[in-house]
Write a structure and sequence with these properties.
4 strands, two-stranded antiparallel ribbon, globular, two-stranded antiparallel sheet, mainly alpha, 182 residues, Aminoglycoside 3'-phosphotransferase, Chain: A, domain 2
Length: 182
């Protein structure tokens, strides 16, 4: 019943990552406008990606377990986030973002990093997300959130055959180097 309630009234079907590059510029503009509007607000609710409340301690522990060479994992900016932004939670051809049970305050860049990370099996799609959400991903907190996502792919509990693994490894090296360079 819950699934029927949530998805029956959506303006379209969830996005198929294979067709992301065919999304019109208006779709990307709607995504950007929605994420920017969300970030401009404030709430006392804490985001729960993967149903776990996000905290500085949790971010530090996850990043350090996989990327020991990252010395400072301090998040400087927290803002509202959807906290489960992936292709199954947005619709096409008309943009709609749904499945909001995890939303709340999170490190800036969490949503962009989640969408980017969920696109790593499709390099052109990951690059498009990175371009579209560069204001979130290119900052220090966004880089940390990208590494935080990559811990799911490269960390001790990751699946060795994850199709995102190759690009996650090369992108993580780039991000770590950028963080170390300051």
């Amino acid at each position: 019943m819950w699934r029927a309630d949530e998805t029956e009234l959506l303006p379209g079907e969830p996005v198929d990552p294979n067709s992301v590059l065919a999304l019109p510029d208006e779709w990307w503009e709607a995504l950007n406008a929605s994420l920017d509007a969300l970030t401009a607000h404030h709430t006392t609710r804490i985001a729960t990606p993967d149903t776990i409340a996000i905290t500085q301690v949790g971010v530090t522990e996850a990043i350090k377990a996989t990327f020991r060479e990252v010395s400072d994992t301090t998040i400087r900016e927290w803002s509202p986030a959807h906290a489960d932004l992936n292709w199954a939670n947005v619709t096409a051809s008309r943009f709609c973002l749904f499945d909001w049970e995890d939303w709340g305050m999170a490190p800036r860049g969490l949503d962009a990093a989640w969408l980017w990370g969920n696109s790593l099996a499709f390099p052109e799609v990951a690059e498009r997300v990175r371009r579209e959400r560069s204001q979130d991903l290119e900052g220090r907190d966004g880089k940390l959130m990208s590494l935080f996502f990559c811990t799911n792919i490269l960390g001790p509990h990751a699946h060795p055959d994850d199709p995102r693994r190759g690009l996650a490894q090369s992108e993580s090296k780039r991000i770590v180097a950028e963080l170390q360079a300051g």
